Amino acid sequence: MARNDLQGSLDLLVLKTLGQRGRLHGYGIVLHIQRASDDLLQVEEGSLYPALHRMEQSGWISSEWALTETGRRAKYYRMTAVGRKQLQEAEASFEQLVKGVRAMLRYA
Amino acid sequence: MGILRRIQNLCRRGKVDAEIEDELRAHLEMAVEDGVRAGMTEEEARRAARARFGNPVSVKEETVGADAVLGVEAIWRDVKFALRQLKKSPGYAVTAVLTLALGIGATTAIFSTMNAVLLRTLPVRNPQQLFYLTHENSPSGVGNTGNQPWDYGINVYDRLRADRSVFSDLIAFVPLAIDKTAVRFGNAPEEVEADEVSGNFFSGLGVRMAAGRGFTEADEQNHTQTAVLSYPYWTRRFDRNLDVIGETLYVNGVPMTIVGVAAPHFYGVEPGGLSTSVWVPLQTRPELNAWGMPATDNTLYGSPNWWVMMLIARLRPEVTEAQALAAMDPLFRRAALETVGKDVKGQQPPLKLTMVAARGLGLGDESYQEPLHVLMGMVALVLLIACVNLSMLMAARNAAREREFAMRLALGAGRWPLFRQLLAESALLVGGGALFGWFFAVQATKLLGIWALLQVSLEPDGRVLLFTLAVSVAAAVAFGLAPLRAAANAPVTVALKSGGTQTTENRSRALTGKALIAGQMALCVALLCGAALLVRTLRNYQDVNLGFRADQVLAFEAPPVGVTENAGKLAFYRELTEQVSRLPGVESVTLAGNRPGSEWSDNDSLVLDGREIPWDNGNNMLRSNEVGPGFFQTLGIPILEGRGITAADTKGTARVAVVNETLAKRYLKGESPIGHTLGDPKRPILIVGTVKDSKYTSADEEAMPMAWYCYEQGPSIENMDVEVRVAGDPLALLPEVRRIVRGIDPNTPINDPMVLSAEFAEGYAMPALAARLGAFFGALAALLVAIGLYGTLAYRVNRRGVEIGVRMALGAQRGQVLWMVVRESLALVTVGLAVGLPLAWFGSKMMASMLYKLKAHDPASFAIAAGGVVAIALLAALLPARRAARVDPMRALRSE
């Protein structure tokens, strides 16, 4: 994923990931996005954490510390009700964007 | 997450930091583990993970930033840093804060005055619904108090208030005296402003009561002997003692039970900045007649043709001003017609109902609007000049810190944080300036209130506070632009490369500086021109020849309390004048129904030799005054022919009058008026003397026909003003006068004692105030411009030290160097004048109506303004020029 990508789409990907996978830590989110997008999308890890913390400030996600399968302490994130609503909105507006861009591209 | 959590985060900063570090470390470790699992060595895996992750330190910083989105901490850090920076240069900080305090304070004070005079609504429920009722013209045969547009008769009031279609309430109020009313609580008599009012006064206006109750309809119907005190009076006189409710207050000797105290900020509704201390319900007793007039002439309830009530209407919520007027105008005409008993329809010019919004002083803005707008404009210019000065100062300071900025940028600091820090500095300065400015404004408005002779408080309120905040924010943003330039333009490489001194300076920056100075000078020219016009106007007022010598005359009022019949009043005034005339230093004593200079007058149609001269819109009006013996001698008005009023003219002798030369010239073709008569042919008044023209109501009045009658010979004796010609200081006589008055009647107060010339000066209090403020603003602007110019020139001379050294080494004479600097200053002033004089030309047009005996384009004022800025330019250039001329070429060259 290009560096100067729209912040909105990173938020969308994170929310969608948490919606599909429930509870997940930052590294897990990176891996999931990579896997689910067939390696098409690469989250820049440096920009993930500021985004996660910002989303937590906005109340879209909540966090807790827990142990990973390998016994490591990691911070896990989970989507809140506000986040779920935000996800719906973000998905809808993304669909709109895609539709619009596609229409533009097909316009003869 | 709420702001609380953010602030909490701030306090637990260490813990949050550690948490973020843990989180990021866990991420990296997991990535390394996966790498190793995929077959990399740990070394390789770690390097790959780091490469994908980016710089952990900056990721951490960004994440911390996300946790404190509002940047409370960042702001606090910036403020602390700015404070440290300002502490390093206290001179700069103090100059900036003081300049801002003066600029913002003066602006706030003037706006506060404008707010009180023009904008502020009454402190009552839904004040925007309240309107004074006024009218154009009166039915013929109707008398009034001299304030014709505002006056209504009681029958008209009753008719209008019965109609509730557009007014939800119609409130009436009448002063109990032209000036103040005698009241007594216990044994202490004093004079306060008192009104008699309709029963719905407090309820209809929507005034909250601070204590007790207001009036009711029953209070008005039964004319109950009750009184409500104003909060300021309750505070001043009774120390907010609740026990006074139920006590007796004697008003003109009539006992009234105090039933309530009105809300704290309610000063009454008298238009013109007057406050009211005591209200009583409408009364029928002769002692409490409207305006303190003798009940033998007219009474509030008994004389339908005597219009003396002022009315204030509360519009129904959905009714507009225009709708209300459309509905009430026909009703008013009919009511006026029927109560007066003449055909008003045929009246020329016709009657017309008008309304004035009850806001500010409630005068419909006429007399104060323009002066206040002009003063507001002037003070805004001063503030602008001050801001320009400061931004130049700031730019100079930032230029000196350019190397520091460049260094910080080179070391990796962002431009945004740099800008934020500079902005924090400006915000601190503006904040400090605004705070001091506010205190300054609070004090200044007190002074302004005294100077403008306004009884209402001009103190800043919430609206003014908003205004001040807005001005401060605007100033802070304006300054923000200066540091923005500094932060954005700081050239990293150039600034670091170049040495400590520069031989050449940045061209565009120098040009901007010059443009700013020239702009300031242009504004200063306009300001000085306005100030000169205002001051010269005041001089013209002061130079008016009153036609008599007013500075040695003491005037005071001593209304005999409780005396209503003529004989008693006559005895009182005879005794009083007799005793005062025996005091040492007193040359003569006399009486006057209307004090000269007080703007009150008796006005009638002129009836000469039994023939009434057509009114002609007041052009043929006869002004008159009832006076005592020795009037002309006491005031020093020269008698041209015949005699003045003497003690021999009494009730028993033929009625006499003295007229002025204008009357003789205009209506008798210069023929001697002696032997002609004035007034009703059945009871003619014989003219026995002619006097030289003199000013009567105010200093700026035009000469007009004037007659003086003997007060003893009139149908009734009103309360008289006493005039005393004194050899020494007139006011020094007061203690003796008080002693005499107390001896004759202990209840009688002394009212408004002052030197007669001061009474005339009160007539031009507003022009005097405008002149003082104008001069103050002009001086302030001149000072600021001088400081700005001096600073700039000195700075440039400093920076051009080497250049000057080279010039001198090559043979330039000291005089030439001196001239070089002065010429630069003069070039700036030339540009300033070229822009400023046209500006002043347009500006002065706007203040035309404030000028007296002066044209808006008064050449002298323009010359003063132009001379003023040239003088500023020369003075400000002198020191830097001399320093330049003293540059030692050898030292200047060696320093490079």
Produce a short descriptive summary:
The complex is a heterodimer of chains A (108) and B (896). Chain A contains 4 helices and 3 strands. Chain A is of the alpha+beta class.
Q: What report would you give on this structure?
A:
The complex is a heterodimer of chains A (108) and B (896). Chain A has one domain (7-106): Winged helix-like DNA-binding domain superfamily/Winged helix DNA-binding domain (Arc Repressor Mutant, subunit A). Chain A is 60% helix and 15% strand. Chain A has helices at 7-21, 26-36, 45-57, 81-106, and strands at 24-25, 61-67, 73-79. Chain A has a 3-stranded antiparallel beta sheet. The longest helix of chain A is centred in the C-terminal third of the chain and has 26 residues, at 81-106. In chain B, a hairpin with a 2-residue loop joins strand 4 and strand 5. In chain B, 51% of the residues lie in helices and 15% in strands. Chain B has 27 helices and 27 strands. In chain B, helix 17 crosses helix 25. Chain B is α+β, with helices and mostly antiparallel strands. Chains A and B meet through helix 3 and strand 3 of A and helix 2 and helix 4 of B.
Features of this protein?
heterodimer; A: alpha+beta; Arc Repressor Mutant, subunit A; 3-stranded antiparallel β-sheet; 15% strand; globular; disordered N terminus; B: 896 residues; alpha+beta; 12-stranded mixed β-sheet; 27 helices
Note the topology.
The complex is a heterodimer of chains A (108) and B (896).
Chain A: H1 7-21, E1 24-25, H2 26-36, H3 45-57, E2 61-67, E3 73-79, H4 81-106
Antiparallel strand pairs in A: 1-3, 2-3
Helix pairs in contact in A: 1-3, 1-4
Chain B: H1 3-11, H2 13-37, H3 42-53, H4 56-67, H5 72-88, H6 90-119, E1 130-136, E2 143-144, H7 154-162, E3 167-175, E4 181-185, E5 188-192, E6 194-197, H8 201-205, E7 209-212, H9 217-221, E8 226-229, H10 231-238, E9 248-251, E10 254-262, E11 278-281, E12 306-307, E13 310-315, H11 321-340, E14 352-357, H12 366-400, H13 402-410, H14 415-451, H15 462-489, H16 492-497, H17 507-542, E15 553-557, H18 566-581, E16 586-592, E17 602-605, E18 607-608, E19 611-612, E20 621-627, H19 631-635, E21 639-642, E22 656-660, H20 661-667, E23 677-678, E24 685-691, E25 706-710, E26 721-726, H21 734-744, E27 751-755, H22 756-763, H23 765-799, H24 801-809, H25 814-846, H26 859-885, H27 889-894
Parallel strand pairs in B: 2-12, 6-11, 8-10, 20-25, 22-24
Antiparallel strand pairs in B: 1-13, 1-14, 3-6, 3-13, 4-5, 4-9, 7-10, 8-11, 9-10, 15-26, 15-27, 16-26, 17-20, 18-19, 21-24, 22-25, 23-24
Helix pairs in contact in B: 1-2, 2-3, 2-4, 5-14, 6-12, 6-14, 6-15, 7-11, 12-15, 12-17, 12-23, 14-15, 17-23, 17-25, 17-26, 18-21, 23-26, 25-26
